[in-house]
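Exercise 7b. Backbone tokens:
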């Protein structure tokens, strides 16, 4: 296979991830194209690209970024070679990946076929089982009746969790401790899933009590080579959504690390994985791993992996999509042994949300925005600058902050110092809450599991 160098890449996204993609392209000598909705006409990602075009006139703030035909027509007209979908929006829509390829535009991500095999949680569980990787006990198919659900719950015992097959971002999930909650949960998860993903299909899993969330970053080239970049620990969650992410996990011994990475590689290998992806597991108190899902895209928390491996994952995605082998000098991963872990990294998601008011999103003008810098501090910001407008239409991520240190405690101290340096006025943020967590004993002892935030409400004050 020939390497086809890209001259121009479009980010079919907005906010920090669009900017992250433009930076990766610019360093590779590739021209960049932004798209923006009417609501985003003053947002920063528009100005960070070499060219920018308005899309979705009259369509609404979210739909603008979902218009496959319009985005592809524009890309064609502007002679774009490849499209990076970022995360969210069209990133896991196999029809978009196919439409790109049909138009002769490379899709920077896994093929539509891989997305179909792994994007749906029920389908992905099957892939894991065939690859010999343990899954959380669950239904083999989506549940189609209340009886089926009750039979499963009876056989494995409560609590159980109802999950949307197409789920993501913690939506379409309900935990049930008894029959009544299960019957309610089935209905509400299905209707939430239908509204959010256009697919009401749900299945059940045994609900593990107080697990840790451990996920493995993988990358495959188009020549059959796959590697992993070790794990991230994303146990610090609110409503099943990640808030703070760590790499590596402070809880794993080298043997356990090897075990979970080998499981992820088995799954990736069994589908001939191409481009970036994440294989997610829950780990119970006895440190048994259970596969839960695969995310066939770059994730919000990829920065912590970049910090501890020194590898630019978004650039690798682009180079792999051009047809490079992982072992080519541009990427420089001759074998798995070339990917080494060094130190510890922590990412905090700074959001425009009010922790004292149940994390309700806040809007308005950022009157003051002064950000931290210094040793081991990386910022990936969306629309963050003094005077910017925070609109109510999109998710409330303002800036991601990633700190690195030789050990977990130095990374945590850098994070604390960096959070203290922020000066943000005009909209409420979760910074005070993040500081509470970063300095909390349970966090510093590396003991957080997925129930940590729920069990420590004093952190929200
Ligand atoms: P999403 O795709 O919405 O992110 P996931 O399947 O990745 O959903 O799960 C998100 C989080 O929900 C997990 O990290 C975990 O905290 C919780 N969770 C999911 N499945 C289970 C389970 N079977 N038992 C306990 N917690 C679970």
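Sequence design result:
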């Amino acid at each position: 296979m020939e390497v086809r160098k890209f001259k121009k890449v479009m980010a079919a996204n907005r906010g920090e991830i669009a900017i992250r993609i433009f930076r990766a392209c610019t360093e590779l000598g590739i021209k960049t194209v932004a798209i923006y909705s009417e609501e985003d006409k003053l947002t920063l990602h528009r100005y960070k690209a070499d060219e920018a075009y308005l899309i979705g006139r009259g369509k609404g703030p979210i739909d603008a970024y979902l218009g496959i035909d319009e985005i592809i027509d524009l890309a064609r007209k502007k002679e774009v070679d490849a499209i990076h979908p970022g995360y969210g929006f069209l990133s896991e829509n196999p029809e978009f990946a196919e439409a790109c390829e049909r138009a002769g535009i490379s899709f920077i991500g896994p093929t539509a076929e891989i997305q179909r095999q792994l994007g749906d949680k029920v389908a992905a569980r099957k892939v894991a089982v065939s690859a010999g990787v343990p899954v959380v006990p669950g239904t083999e198919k989506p549940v189609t009746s209340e009886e089926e659900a009750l039979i499963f719950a009876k056989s494995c015992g409560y609590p159980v969790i109802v999950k949307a097959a197409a789920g993501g971002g913690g939506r379409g999930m309900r935990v049930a401790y008894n029959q009544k909650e299960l019957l309610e949960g089935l209905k509400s998860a299905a209707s939430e899933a239908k509204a959010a993903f256009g697919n009401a299909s749900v299945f059940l899993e045994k609900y593990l009590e107080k697990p840790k969330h451990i996920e493995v970053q993988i990358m495959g080239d188009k020549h059959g080579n796959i590697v992993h970049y070790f794990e991230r620990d994303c146990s610090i969650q609110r409503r099943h959504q990640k808030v703070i992410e760590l790499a590596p996990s402070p809880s794993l011994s080298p043997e356990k690390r090897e075990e979970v990475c080998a499981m992820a590689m088995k799954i990736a290998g069994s589908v001939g994985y191409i481009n970036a992806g994440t294989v997610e597991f829950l780990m119970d108190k006895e440190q048994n791993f259970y596969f839960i899902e695969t995310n066939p895209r770059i994730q919000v928390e990829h920065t912590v992996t970049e910090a501890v491996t020194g590898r630019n994952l978004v650039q690798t995605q682009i180079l792999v999509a051009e047809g490079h082998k992982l072992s080519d000098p541009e990427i420089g991963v001759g074998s798995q042994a070339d990917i080494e872990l060094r130190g510890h990294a922590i990412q905090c998601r700074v959001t425009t949300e009010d922790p004292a008011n149940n994390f309700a999103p806040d809007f308005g003008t950022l009157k003051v925005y002064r950000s931290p810098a210094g040793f081991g501090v990386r910022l990936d910001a969306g629309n963050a600058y003094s005077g910017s407008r925070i609109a109510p239409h999109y998710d409330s991520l303002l800036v991601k902050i990633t700190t690195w240190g030789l050990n977990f405690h130095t990374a945590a101290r850098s994070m604390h110092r960096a959070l203290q340096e922020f000066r943000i006025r005009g909209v409420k943020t979760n910074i005070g809450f993040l500081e509470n967590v970063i300095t909390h004993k349970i966090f510093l002892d590396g003991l957080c599991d997925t129930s940590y935030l729920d069990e420590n409400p004093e952190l929200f004050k």
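Instructor comment: The chain has a mean pLDDT of 97. Residues 136, 161, 167-170, 205-208, 211, 213, 237, 240, 280, 282, 292-293, 450 surround adenosine-5'-diphosphate (CB under 6 Å).
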